[in-house]
Each structure stands twice: as C-alpha cells, then as structure tokens.
Amino acid sequence: MQRVKRAPISGARSFAFPTGFVWGAAAASFQIEGAADEDGKGPSVWDMFCEKPGAIHDGHHARVVCDHYHRYPEDVALLRELGVQAYRLSLSWPRVLPEGTGRVSDRGLDFYDRLVDALLAAGVTPWITLFHWDYPLALFRRGGWSNRESATWFAEYAEVVTRRFSDRVRHFFTQNEPQVYVGFGLQRGTHAPGLELPLAEMLQAGHHSLLGHGLAVQAMRASARQPLAIGYAPVGLPKLPASDAPADVELARRATFEITEDNAWNNAWWMDPVYLGTYPEQGLAYYGKAVPRVRSGDLETIRQPLDFFGVNIYQGLVVRGADNRFGYERVRYPAGHPATAFNWPVTPEALYWGPRLFHERYGLPVVIAENGVSSRDWVSLDGGVHDPSRIDFTNRYLRAFRRAIADGTEALGYFHWSILDNFEWAAGYRERFGLVHVDYETLKRTPKDSFYWYQRVIATNGAHLDDPRPLLRDTDGRASSKPRELHSRSTGTLR
Ligand code: FCB
C-alpha cells in the first residue's frame, strides 16, 4: 500500500499553483439578484418557500437581497478590482423561461446579456451554472423533479441558454449540489419546495435530476457555437483519515464513497452515475428497496463526457475503524474545535483529501466550485470590515489544496464562495459568506479585509499564502492589498 506523505498543512511551503490556475469567486442568482418579479420573471420554488411561515430564519425574504439585478455594474467593478479571472454565476431558470418550458423571456435573457457583456469587458470570464436551486414554480406544479419529464424540461432550458450565450461563454456547470436541492428540498423539507417525501420517492426524483444533467449536456454540446467546457457541481464530503497510517488513509478512501444514511447526503450516489455510468454497488445494497426505477439507456445518458470535476467543498469528517456494520465511525472533534459562524467545523484537510480522492476515482482535473466561510462580520468604527477568520480559514484551505496539487492532483481552479454577503437559503441573512460586506438596509457594499488579502493571493498566484505580513493600511485606515513597493500612495504603513 502506498505511503502517504504528509506535510503539516499550516506549515509554510513555497511552491506555486500551476500556471493558468483560475482564481475565481462565486454567487448564485436567487441569493443576490432580487427583482423577484421584475421584467416578467416567473416565480421559483424559493419565492414560494420564503412565504411559508417559519421556513426562513427570522422571516427573511429574498425579494431584494443585494439588488444585484440593478447594481450588477458595481458588482462587476468589484470583481475586476479583486482581480479574479473568473466569476461563477447562476442563471435563474424562471427568469429565462417564466413557466419553466415553452415561452422564453427576452427581458430575462437581456439581463444576463448585459451581465455577461459587463464581465467580459471587465476581463472576468463568466462560468455559468444553469441550475442553482431556483426551480420554476410552474414546473413544480407539474410534479417537479418527481416527474420524469423534468429531465427534458431541464434540457430544453439548457439549450435556450446555450444558444444565447455560447458565442461568448464557454464554461458551464449544469447543476449545483443535488444532495441539497433533492435531499433537503424533497426529503428533509428544510429547503424549497419543502417536501418530505419517503426515501424511495426522493431517490426517484434524484434519478430524474441526474437524467436531466445528461440530457442537458447532450443538448448543450449539440447547440453550442464553440466547444464548451462543461462540468457539474455536487457537494463533496470527503472523509478524512484519523492518522497518516496507510490503513487509516485506505479507510477514509473507502468511507468517502460509501452510503451510510437514509438520505441524499453522500458523494458516490451523485457522482458515480455521472462519471462512471453506474450507481455505486454499495449504495444500491444500502438503499435496497428504495433504489429508483432506471430505464435502459438512462445511465448511458447520465454519463456524458465532462471537461472537469467541479465540486463544492466546505468540510470533511474524520473517520476511524470501528466494530460496526460499516467498519468505521466518525471521530468527534474535541471540545472547542474551530467552527464557523454556521457551526461548520473548520477542516482544512478537506481541501487536501477531497480533491485527491475525487481525482483518483474520477480522473478529471478538479475545479473547486465553492469553498468559503460564514462569519459575523460588521462595519467597524474605522469603516473597514475586519474578518481575520475568513483570511485564516481560506489560507489554510488553499494550502491544503496546494499540497494536493503538489502530490499529483490535477486542478484547474478555485472559486471562493462568495463575492458578496447574500441570502443564505433557510438561514436568511444570518450567515455572511462574502468577501464584500452588504448592508441590507442601504445595499452599500464594503470590501472586507479578506477581499484585499485574496486580491493579493490572486495577484501572486498563491505565493501570498506564505506571506506572514499583515495587511497594509492607508493612514485613513483602508486596507490595501498592494505590497509596499507597489503601493500607489506614499502613506502606506504596516498595521
Ligand atoms: C452551498 C450552496 C451555496 C451557499 C453555500 C454556503 O451549499 O451551494 O449556495 O449556500 O453552500
């Protein structure tokens, strides 16, 4: 068995990210756009869910959110200032097709035209996600993902988007996190549309969403005006070895792809069909009678060649051997283990083991489509937003990712979640994930310290991860990412 080299992730290691590595930031339509019923947009299941008493933290709603629909020029200017090469945005399906199928909204498409053109003019490459959860309400009323026809509805939408944008946009993700919109949305009921279906019904709907992915990729390739780079963005939940010992590593590798709960919260069920053309054997055995009805040809359709392995990684779980049905158990974190404001454990090694194990199994170059942290940020008396925990979190995770790359994992890029504070689904505005603070009363944007830090990480292609110097501050207290020698004002001082 191969011995796994382990360097301490927090230790300085100066080697660069690959040349051409894509540094990006991400957001999603429903979480930032607002303009919930402007210019002919149809309602989504999330518009409906926000009206449900008790569904969203403190009764928050998403009618305005960051008002990105009207303020996108300011947001594009922020992306340009940040220096990202790419921006991962999603389109609102019911803004493009108000009833989900059939009639196309020109005004909806016009908005995304303006946005895409503004990004291109700013030198930022758009990576479009077709579906980031704002499912057309009209289609939900026709059965949503539970209806097998949903797969063709999704492919129709994919084709509309491809025909309109593939002259300028080459990078696409089909769907974001089926584990969440199927699992939380259709089984657990904590996300829109809020259903609590039995396991088998949930898995059947999930099968249709996977089929939709496959049909969409076919439709996109057939209608594209240039060769596209297409991926998919499931959640990645790596299991982390309890030690360096080869047996622990082997256990974590196996556990990462096993299914041990009666829900959608796993990797292989949503990845194997897409990349390997099969549902995982262990999962089929585990789900037993609840497995979906699969028609002949479905798995071939689901398995379309993709160009990269997109994945959203926020955390991992440490496992160790145990005398139970699965042969392992989760290791509890010690009391006081670092956690984010969302109470998600801080586990930088997830960005080592996740990319590495997914790359080993699926063979495609990895794109981290989301990674980030919520913290309780506010505008300080000095006018800045000081978020050292976001800087430290991101530094640790990026070092881990860099180590995975150094150990042989092919990787193309990293998208930080998120460019802006935004509507965090059922948690409403409680969780702030942005590199830019948003005051939801005034809609004022204030770049946080992490924005300037990430700006310097990007400008140095990651070398700044090893730079222990604190952020520079102007005499007026504004953070600056510029190293001293490049500092445009002679007043730059070290904090
Ligand atoms: C992911 C979602 C994204 C955001 C982050 C924090 O699960 O894809 O929209 O909510 O979590």
Provide the fold topology.
Layout: E1 22-26, H1 29-32, H2 45-50, H3 68-82, E2 86-90, H4 93-96, H5 106-121, E3 125-131, H6 137-140, H7 150-165, E4 171-176, H8 178-188, H9 199-223, E5 229-233, E6 239-241, H10 246-256, H11 268-276, H12 281-287, H13 298-302, E7 309-312, E8 317-321, E9 328-330, H14 350-362, E10 366-370, H15 388-406, E11 411-417, E12 436-438, E13 445-447, H16 449-459, E14 472-473, E15 479-480, E16 493-494
Parallel strand pairs: 1-2, 1-11, 2-3, 3-4, 4-5, 6-8, 7-10, 10-11
Antiparallel strand pairs: 8-9, 12-13, 14-15, 14-16
Helix pairs in contact: 3-5, 7-9, 8-9, 14-15
The protein binds beta-D-fucopyranose (FCB).
Unreliable residue stretches? 1-14, 483-495
For the secondary structure, the number of strands is: 16
Backbone CA Rg: 22 Å
Mean pLDDT: 94
Assembly state of the chains shown: single chain
For the largest sheet, list the strands in their spatial order: 5-4-3-2-1-11-10-7
Q: Report helical residue fraction.
A: 25-40%
Please outline the major beta sheet.
8 strands, parallel
How many helices does DSSP assign? 16
Output the structural class.
Answer: alpha/beta
Q: Approximately what portion of the residues adopt beta-strand conformation?
A: 5-15%
The ligands bound in this entry are: beta-D-fucopyranose
Distance between the termini: 49 Å
Shape: globular
